[in-house]
Write a structure and sequence with these properties.
- The complex is a heterodimer of chains A (179) and B (514).
- Chain A has 179 residues and is mostly helical.
- Chain A has a domain of 116 residues.
- Chain A contains seven helices and two strands; from the N terminus they run αααααββαα.
- In chain A, strands 1-2 form a two-stranded antiparallel ribbon.
- In chain A, strand 1 and strand 2 form a beta hairpin.
- The two termini of chain A are 34 Å apart.
- Chain B is of the alpha+beta class and 514 residues long.
- A five-stranded antiparallel sheet of chain B has the order 3-2-6-5-4, with helices on both faces. Chain B has a five-stranded mixed sheet with strand order 8-10-11-13-12. Chain B has a two-stranded antiparallel sheet with strand order 7-9.
- In chain B, helix 1 runs antiparallel to helix 2 and helix 2 runs antiparallel to helix 3.
- The termini of chain B are far apart.
- The interface between A and B is large, with 77 and 76 residues.
- Strand 2 of chain A pairs antiparallel with strand 1 of chain B, so a sheet runs across the interface.
- The structure holds adenosine-5'-triphosphate and magnesium ion (MG).
- Magnesium ion (MG) binds next to helix 10 of chain B.
């Protein structure tokens, strides 16, 4: 998602700004990463890596989707428990599934949107330009993906908290116990 | 501009969503870690832990990306953002992939573990079963050992405590084990002295031995077989033996186990009984004959004496008649003796008498004639013997009989030993008269008390001496026994070949009634 944004964001020429940023804030990780980079302009690397990265990223989402579906299936087939904790866990998985679907669609739509679909120069002024076709609407709404992944994470936390309480109140199970 | 949509709500959503995602992911991670801490071996928790770890990475990389972009772009550092963005995206991809891989991997792990678990469970079951088996085995072995020990104790006790001889032999008929009673019966002191000896070496009679082993071999057992064993001191041991052969799996004789009852004493008693039976019947016969002969003898004697008066002048006829009278008198005496012996009713007067004194009286009479033949009397009389109720006259007769026999057995040159002693256990006085004479062969020793049994030539002896003596001692409730060779060491050492033992109870039953 970020990679795509990288590209779709209007990138004003701020080379010296980057220099300033790097000299001002010497975050060790960033310096290390920067020294490892080839001496070619950053733009060139991104041009080459971009499509691959995007595909890999999208495939990862598909992979993740499949894994979640699979996990949901085995949980259904052999439920490790029937408490509220496990209900929450499943709910979290469902939200993650939805989020995955959402992000995948957004990635895909974004790759098909022309550069001209985005207008405005400052962050606050960024806009999704018309004509507002259903695709653009879907893209726009899909961008609010945190409305899906935050609940997913929330239910996960809820489920784990309950599991913690349940487990603490009974003796440890035998090795490898689970669904 | 009317047909376009502002993107800033999206950025706001990204910003706060990113922050929330980081917080929630960290919270999830903390809970997941707590779960793994509680139960470190639960794969599900381990999976969730790694899932949460990957989610933290995802949330941080993504959230930080959102936030940084927001801040960087807002502050005009777009280039810096452009530089960082691919790293953030890459990490996201990796995190997502990791989560997916973990999920698939978790399932396979789950199956492997389920398999391991069933294996472990069956192993545990097997182990439990084994443990239980082991325990019950131990217990059973213990119980059986206990039973065996008790049983062994029981049989040991039976074996060792038995008054009968019990022994075991190997296939070569060598004694492998024998109880104490057996050892004593055979005249030994220690078990070790008997173990290893051949059973055959104890048999007195080879033919009997052969028969015994033949029966054992043919029938596998010998039941109540009467045998004669030689003791260590060569004395005779009558045994009634019952033997069973021990076979191995192939049916071959491995050895035998036997139990033998000592019949020596029983045999002696029965022999004596037979003896007295014989004597009783012979006595009746003798009494009848004596009675019938007595009358004609009296008539012969009467007429002879009448004739003597008639022929008093003719010395030749008179002498012949005197001889007839003398021989008739001898006959009368023999008949009288016979009557005395047979009736046993000739109840003399029994008085308390000193046995040593009695012996001395007899010796005083016979010693002179003994000395003539160079036979000397060796006295070993114990002083202070209790007085015994006896008919002195008849006891003297017994002693004379025995001493005469000894004289005859020695011939010339020898010793006659005389011992007296008191046995407080049986309250009996014992007189032993031994001689260094020819001895009595084992074959005939059983018959010497029979009436008319004699080894002397015709006309020399009647064979009544010992049977009459036996009757007299019986009449005193005593016993008369002969041993050749003597049983006791002291007589053997004194050189005796034959000993006669007279035992007289100091207060014979019925003595008071008489
Ligand atoms: N001391 C002895 N040593 C060896 N043999 C003996 C002895 N005493 C007895 N006998 C044997 O016992 C037999 C029986 O003895 P017993 O006194 O009864 O009769 P006898 O001596 O033969 O005859 P009798 O006594 O009438 O002269 C004897 O013939 C003799 O063979
Ligand atoms: Mg005699």
């Amino acid at each position: 998602m970020w990679i795509r944004k990288n590209f779709t964001q209007p990138a004003p020429d701020t080379g010296d700004v980057a220099h300033r940023f790097l000299s001002r804030r010497t975050i060790i990780g960033i310096v290390a990463a920067a020294t490892l980079l080839p001496a070619t302009p950053a733009l060139a690397v991104q041009l080459h890596g971009a499509p691959e990265g995007l595909y890999v990223h999208m495939l990862a989402h598909v992979f993740y989707f499949a894994a979640l579906l699979f996990l949901l299936l085995i949980l259904k087939k052999k439920p490790p428990g029937h408490s509220a904790a496990w209900r929450n866990f499943r709910l979290a998985l469902v939200f993650f599934l939805l989020w995955n679907t959402d992000t995948f669609i957004v990635h895909w739509l974004a790759s098909r949107l022309p550069e001209t679909a985005f207008v405005g120069h400052s962050l606050w002024a960024h806009r999704l330009a018309g004509p507002l076709t259903p695709t653009r609407w879907i893209y726009y709404l899909g961008r609010f993906d945190h409305l899906l992944c935050v609940p997913a994470m929330f239910f996960l936390v809820l489920s784990l908290r309950r599991l913690c309480r349940e487990t603490e109140s009974r003796p440890p199970t035998t090795p490898g116990d689970g669904p | 501009m009317t047909a376009s949509l502002p993107l800033w709500p999206v950025y706001i959503d990204d910003f706060f969503g990113g922050v929330l995602m980081i917080i929630l992911a960290v919270a999830a991670f903390i809970y997941a870690r707590r779960l793994t801490r509680i139960d470190q071996e639960n794969v599900l928790w381990i999976y969730i832990f790694w899932l949460c770890t990957a989610l933290v990475v995802l949330a941080v990389s993504r959230g930080v990306g959102h936030i940084l972009r927001f801040l960087l772009v807002l502050s005009g550092h777009d280039a810096a953002w452009n530089f960082l963005a691919p790293y953030s995206g890459g990490i996201n991809t990796m995190a997502i992939t990791a989560v997916a891989v973990l999920t698939f991997y978790y399932h396979s792990m789950q199956r492997v573990i389920a398999r391991v678990q069933t294996d472990a469970r069956s192993l545990t079951r097997a182990h439990d079963a084994l443990t239980e088996l082991n325990q019950t085995l131990e217990q059973r072995v213990e119980e059986r050992t206990m039973e065996l020990r008790l049983s062994e104790q029981k049989f040991r006790h039976l074996f060792e405590g038995s008054k009968d001889m019990i022994f075991f032999c190997d296939s070569q008929a060598r004694i492998t084990d024998i109880n104490d009673a057996g050892v004593n019966l055979l005249g030994f002191e220690k078990t070790d002295e008997v173990i290893g000896r051949s059973l055959k070496s104890f048999f007195l009679d080879q033919e009997q031995c052969d028969r015994y082993f033949r029966i054992l071999h043919d029938q596998g057992h010998v039941k109540e077989f009467e045998i004669e064993f030689a003791r260590r001191d060569n004395s005779r041991l009558y045994l009634m033996i019952t033997t069973s052969a021990i076979h191995d799996d192939s049916g071959a004789i491995q050895g035998c186990e036997a139990i033998a009852k000592d019949l020596t004493r029983f045999k002696e008693v029965t022999d004596q009984l037979i003896q007295s039976e014989n004597m009783a019947s012979v006595g009746q016969l003798a009494a009848g004959v004596a009675h019938e002969i007595n009358t004609p003898l009296g008539i012969i004697l009467g007429y002879t004496q009448l004739l003597e008066e008639d022929f008093a002048g003719q010395s030749e006829v008179f002498d012949t008649l005197k001889t007839v009278e003398k021989q008739t008198n001898i006959c009368k005496r023999i008949v009288a003796d016979l009557l005395k012996f047979s009736r046993n009713t000739v109840e003399g007067i029994k008085k308390a008498a000193d046995i040593n004194g009695c012996l001395e009286e007899v010796l005083a009479i016979v010693e002179h004639s003994l000395n003539m033949d160079h036979i000397y009397v060796q006295r070993s009389m114990s002083s202070g013997l209790p007085r015994v109720m006896v008919d002195r006259e008849r006891l003297r007769q017994v002693l004379v009989n025995i001493i005469n026999n000894a004289h005859y057995a020695i011939g010339v040159e020898g010793i006659i030993g005389v011992w007296t002693s008191y046995d407080p256990e049986f309250q009996e006085v014992e007189i032993v008269i031994g001689d260094t004479g020819c001895g009595i062969p084992a074959k005939t020793i059983g018959r010497i008390f029979d009436p008319f049994f004699t080894t002397k030539g015709v006309g020399k002896g009647t064979g009544l001496g010992l049977s009459v003596s036996f009757g007299i001692i019986k009449d005193h409730n005593g016993s008369l026994e002969a041993f050749s060779p003597p049983r006791q060491q002291q007589f053997l050492e004194a050189g005796m070949r034959t000993t006669f033992h007279i035992r007289l109870p100091i207060r014979p039953e019925g003595a008071h009634d008489a």
